[in-house]
Amino acid sequence: MTMSVADYARECAAQGLRGDYSVCRADFTVEQSYNYTADEQAVWRTLCDRQTKLTQKLA
Q: In the chain, which ranges are continuous DSSP H helix?
């Protein structure tokens, strides 16, 4: 099955998924923005730490 980025963006929106899927490239990757605030960095650090602990426990 193949799906265009435009169709994928519409499907994601129809399912209530957040994010701007319209900026996906043809291979479904997106440009990464690195200009996070300190608060946003802290959130990501918390999430990564949590996932790392789970990976170590479950892998």
A: 5-14, 38-58
The answer, as to whether pTM is greater than 0.70, is: no
Q: What range defines the domain where residue 39 resides?
A: 5-58
- Measured over the CA atoms of residue 55, residue 57, residue 58 and residue 59, the dihedral's sign is positive
pLDDT by residue (tens digit) across 17-54?
877 777 888 888 888 888 999 999 999 999 999 999 99
**Amino acid letter, residue 44:** W
Asked if residue 9 lies in contact with residue 28, where contact means CB atoms within 8 angstroms, the answer is no
